[in-house]
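Sequence, structure tokens reproduced for reference:
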Amino acid sequence: MPWGSLRLYAVQHWLRVPLPKDGKPYAPGFFLRQKNGFISGIGRESRQGILRLIYARRCVAHGCETIIPENSAGDHLIPVALGGRNYVANFVPLCRPHNSSKGKKDLLEWWVVRQWPAVGLPLELWCHYCRLNWQLLSHETLSSDAPLYLVAFLEAAKNLLPSDGHRKALDMACSIKEIYVKPR
């Protein structure tokens, strides 16, 4: 399961990196060269992106522009019922109707059920989701299967990459079992 989170983290990293001066996307080797950076990056905790989303006070649901009241409790990226913690890095700004529709679902599960495009999820939120999922699930066995919603979101995310070569390099860079990070 953690390997799905690592692949998602690598894709969001790819999407954040500015294009080179020639305007062409980086070659597939980008993923293999960045492998160690993905491992160290996904293990870091950063609240800055979530705080930017909180201060923006806008619902992050696809197509929603609702301003969220300052006293809103929002929702959890990973529900407490599924092992998520009750703290700011696990917060997702959602308006009341979207909060109600998400219920106790994991953020990506809810996103996939609604059939929203992967590209519609803010990259900062995507990054935090991957980090939280990695921290929560890094103690799981490497052979455990990822939930179907995570697989579906990952497939949609991989399709944002420019070529099959990039998708293969992503899988190679994030499948090497020796890079498993021990739980804290």
Remarks:
- DSSP finds eight helices and two strands in the chain.
- The longest strand covers residues 75-76.
